[in-house]
Amino acid sequence: MLPSRRQLLAPVLLASWAPGAARAQTWPARPVRLLVGYSPAGTTDIAGRLIAERLTARLGQPFLVENRPGATGNIAAEAVARSEPDGYTLYVTNIANAAINYTLFGPRMPVKPEDFAEVGLLMQVPNVIFVHPGSPANTLQDFIAMARARPGALNYGSAGSGGSLHMSMELLKVRSSIAVTHVPFRGAGPMLVEAMAGRLDAGCDNMPSCIGHIRDGRLRPLAVTTATRSAALPEVPTVAESGLPGFEATSWFGIQAPVRTPTPIVALLGDAIDAVTKEPGYRARLLELGAMLPGLRPDGGTSPEAFTAFTRREIEKWAEAVRISGATVD
Question: Would you indicate the residue range of the signal peptide (predicted)?
Fold first, then answer.
């Protein structure tokens, strides 16, 4: 009896799959680098260190965060995309690097979506618009009124060009018909220093990296950019409640690998990240920081497949937002 086509193909399929499977069985056999495209103390850095600690415990090898700031995360993104696709160099990505920058930077963007394999979403977070406690603006309406009275005279700081911080404020400018100047920094850390020193008229940051300064009274929150108020700062109104109905912008953070990373390694790492999102300690820490669970699956978790679909939707969504706002790279 002649062998069937399926029987003839089976050894070929097994041979093509086996190398990746073998590597997955031995991975990780040495430390894994997690590149962060921003300076320490920002939310991308916080997200990287939260997951690194827990993956180290789960997978038995050190996961080491390496900060490589510059070009709104594009320097680190390009380094990961060009690295050996063996699972030992990963990227702590965010809404800027995995979605907004592709439209905002256009032909200047050094990488493309197809250069990466999505592994897992770590968390979603509100953005907060704030001022120095000495500012005369006590509400977002106050700040808007100040900006209208002095067109082009006020400024705001963000963690860099691109991303939902920059885009949140650019959309705010369009919706409220104000002109304020964007001052980009190489990460949230240096921007927050300037904001707390009173050298910025306003700032916008992800909640996890600024919530401690808000609770300590070193920054005055005006509004959050999510559709509903945050349980971490329930007294702070949304932008929509502050006179701009329908306004919403949410940041997010995840893990990507070079595109040719073996599928079994991506799957193994994706399962580990999903398991971390279910740890009570991780969930409690997210709530403390004002962040939200990944929420890509009914159980609140994540997977490579779900994260891939999510990023593709976000690229389309923010391409339209960039167009509407007219935002450019400073």
Answer: 1-24
In angstroms, the CA 228 to CA 222 distance is: 14
- The residues pairing with 257 across neighbouring beta strands, listed in sequence order, are 117
100-132 burial code (b ≥16 CB/10 A, e <16): bbbbbbeeebebebebbbbbbbbbbbbbbbbbb
> Phi/psi of residue 248, each to 5°?
-160, 135
Give the amino acid at 265: I
Question: Six-digit token pair at 32?
Answer: 């894994």
Task: For residue 278, give the 3-state DSSP assignment.
Answer: coil
Q: Which residues contact 36 (CB under 8 A, 6 or more apart)?
A: 44, 45, 48, 65, 66, 67, 68, 69, 76, 92
**10-23+30-125+251-325 and 126-242 share one fold:** yes
Residue 151 in this model has a pLDDT that exceeds 90: yes
Alpha-carbon gap, residue 249 to 251, rounded angstroms: 7
List the chain domain ranges.
10-23+30-125+251-325, 126-242
User: Which pair of tokens denotes residue 323?
Assistant: 């167009």
Nearest-angstrom CA–CA distance, 324 and 144: 20
pLDDT at residue 6 in the model: 38
**CATH of span 10-23+30-125+251-325:** 3.40.190.150
Where do runs of H (alpha helix) occur along the chain?
Answer: 5-26, 43-59, 74-81, 95, 101-104, 140-149, 163-176, 188-196, 207-215, 263-277, 280-289, 304-325
List beta partners, residue 191. Answer: none
pLDDT digits (tens, 9 = 90+) for 53-69: 999 999 999 999 999 99
β-strand pairing of 116-131 with 250-258: antiparallel
CATH number for 126-242 (one of 3.90.550.10, 3.40.50.300, 3.40.190.10, 2.40.30.60): it is 3.40.190.10
**Tokens at 92, concatenated:** 């702590």
Start-to-end CA distance of the chain, whole Å, equals 71
